Amino acid sequence: MKPLRTLKYKNGDEQPAIGLGTWKSGKGEVTKAVEIALNNGYKHIDCAATYGNENEVGEAFEKVFGEGKIKRKDVWITSKLWNDSHKKEDVIPALKQTLKDLKLDYLDLYLMHWPVAFKKGVGFPESDDEYYSLEEVPIIETWEAMVEAKKQGLVKHIGVSNFSTKKLKDLISKTDEKPEALQVELHPYLHQNELLEFCSKNGINVTAYSPLGSGDRAESMKAEDEPSLLENPTIIKIAKKHGASAGQILINWAVQRGTAVIPKSTNEGRIKENLASSGFQLDKEDLAEIDQLDEHFRYVTGEFFVTKGNSYSNIYDE
Fold first, then answer.
1. What's this protein's family per the entry (predicted)?
2. Sign of torsion, CA 270 275 279 281?
3. Known binding site for substrate: residues?
4. How far is CA 229 from CA 15, 259, 295, in A?
5. Which of 29, 65, 192, 283 yields a CA-CA distance of 20 to 30 A from 199?
6. CA-closest candidate to residue 9, choices 206, 187, 171
7. Per DSSP, what are the bridge partners of residue 188?
């Protein structure tokens, strides 16, 4: 198998382009999925506190790293700060809880999950008074605590998730330690070329989430008649041409754009198939056809943060 592509960081660290996502992976399944992934060549696992399964992911890390064949230093592990821990005094304790759950001494990458702040202990707000506004808890306050976590050696790299170009520019203008990474929704229905260009110019590595269309997320998060990526006729046609699956085309496209990508699966066959996605090259014709699919469609709209009285109605600044 040819070596996997990586995204390089200023200090020489490399983030493997294809990782295993763990959002929506059930507690009973995720330990096994992470074990399967690591034992079949994955070197990148993406986690988050709010996924509610970091303890189970940690069991897989403990087992696999304990066996000794795969070393901790050879696997890139990302996690994310949840919205209820944005106050400066809450950031490092939240990170330490994630490290405890994942049974790790450090993370390779720690991301601010959303540019949204909740009151402490709120999993998901049900009313306005469970939110802080970004005036009450500014992004820069949270960011400075993440910078401190990096200084303490708890994380090697820090970044953000679900940030627009506008929010990135604003943060960069206020800090000497700019984000090293951005994780956002990206797929053929949502190319976000301008955002990618901005990140490229500013040395920010990008990871694509929901690359396959996130069809297994909660019904409450779905729009009526939303388009399917895996059933898109153009994607299926290109897949047949390359003797690949539709999922492999979507993952390959993300990697060829220079992003990392984190498809989630708990199915052994699919986990292996996803990692093998970069075993061929999409040609100019394929890329031109996929270019035509961009309709700026989001599966994860962010509208679940909007309540009548809060200030989160246009989270992506569009």
1. Belongs to the aldo/keto reductase family.
2. positive
3. 113
4. 26, 18, 12
5. 283
6. 206
7. none
CB 247 within 8 A of CB 277: yes
Q: Give, to the nearest 10 degrees, the angle between helix 54-67 and helix 27-39.
A: 30
- The two tokens of residue 244 are 């690949």
Extract the tokens encoding 18.
């294809």
Does pTM top 0.85 for this prediction? yes
How far apart, in whole angstroms, are the C-alpha atoms of residue 226 and residue 297? 9
**DSSP string over 240-289:** HHHT--HHHHHHHHHHHTT-EE--B---HHHHHHHHGGGSS---HHHHHH
Catalytic residues: 51
Q: Rounded to whole angstroms, what are the CA distances from 210 to 183, 186, 261?
A: 10, 7, 9
Q: What are the tens digits of pLDDT across the range 240-255?
A: 999 999 999 999 999 9
Confidence of residue 2 (pLDDT cuts 50, 70, 90): low
Q: Other CB atoms closer than 10 Å to residue 194's CB: what's the count?
A: 10
Tokens of 53: 């399964």
Whether the CB-CB separation of 203 and 10 falls below 8 Å is answered with: yes
**CA dist., res. 83 & res. 113, Å (int):** 7
pLDDT at 130 over 90: yes
Contact indicator for 132, 117 with CB cutoff of 8 Å: yes
- Cα(306)–Cα(315) distance, rounded to whole angstroms? 9
